[in-house]
Design brief:
With about 250 residues, this protein is of the alpha+beta class. It has helices at about 25-35, 40-60, 85-105, 105-110, 130-155, 165-170, 175-185, 195-200, 240-245, and strands at about 15-25, 65, 70-75, 120-130, 200-210, 220-230. The protein has a domain at about 10-140 and about 195-200: 2-Layer Sandwich (Alpha-Beta Plaits). Helix 2 (about 40-60) packs across helix 3 (about 85-105) and helix 5 crosses helix 7 (about 175-185). The relative contact order is 0.15. Belongs to the tRNA(His) guanylyltransferase family.
Amino acid sequence: MKKCEIFSSLKVPCTSNIVLRLDGRNFSQLSRKLEFEKPYDIEFVKIITESSCQLFKEFSPRFIYTFSDEVNLLLGEIPFAGRVEKIDSVLASFLSSAFTREIMGQDKFKEKLKGTKPISFDSRLIPLSDQGVVEYFQWRQAESWRNCLNGYSYWKLRETHSQDESMHILHKKKSSQLHELLFQKGINLAEMPSWQRRGVGIYKKEFEVEGINPLTKQKVKSRRKKIFVDWELPRFDENFFTSKSMLK
C-alpha cells in the first residue's frame, strides 16, 4: 500500500526560499460566534500572535508575518527533510492546536466556544527566489492594508445602515472614495495603529543583556538574539529583509 501514497516523496526545491501560508478555516463564522470587536479585536490579535510565537520557537523560521487570520512563515532550516506533505500537515496542525489552547485560556471566549466546530488552519507551500520573497510579503502587506481600509469603511457604515445597504454603498468604490467616506466620519487611517494597517512581524532581534562574569564576579554586557514581536512594521522593501539577514 505504500506505493499508493503518491505525494509522500514530494520535496521542496533545495535552491529556493520556502514560504508557508497558513489560513484560518471558517474564521468569519468563528468571529461571529465569539463576537469579536470590529473591525479589530486586540485580544484575537494577541492570541494569533502568541500562537505564531510558539510556531517560531518550535520551527525557527527566519520570519513570521501575520494579519487577520493569516500566518506567513519564511522558513529557515527546512524541517522533515523537505517533505511537502509533512511540512504542510504538521505546521497547520501545530498552529491549530496552539491557537485553540490560547483562545481556550481566555475567559471571555471560553464559554462561547462550547458547541463550536474544532478550530483549524489550512496550509500551502510557496518556493520563491530572494526577490520573490520581498514581492510576496509586499503583496500580503498590501492585502493587510486593503483589509484595514475595507473593514473600517464597512463597520463604520454598519453603525447607521443595514448589511445590504452598507454593501451597496461600498460597491465598486475606489480607495480614494473610501478614504473620503471615512474622513467625513472623523477617521484618518494614518492615525490608526500600525499593526492594523501593516500587520505584525516576528523575528530574531539582537538585544544587549547584562550578566556576571563567573571568574571576576564583575558585571559584563553581551549581545543575544531573542524572538521579537514587531507591532510597528515599516512598509516592506528589500532593505527590511536584507538588514535582518532573512534572505539566503
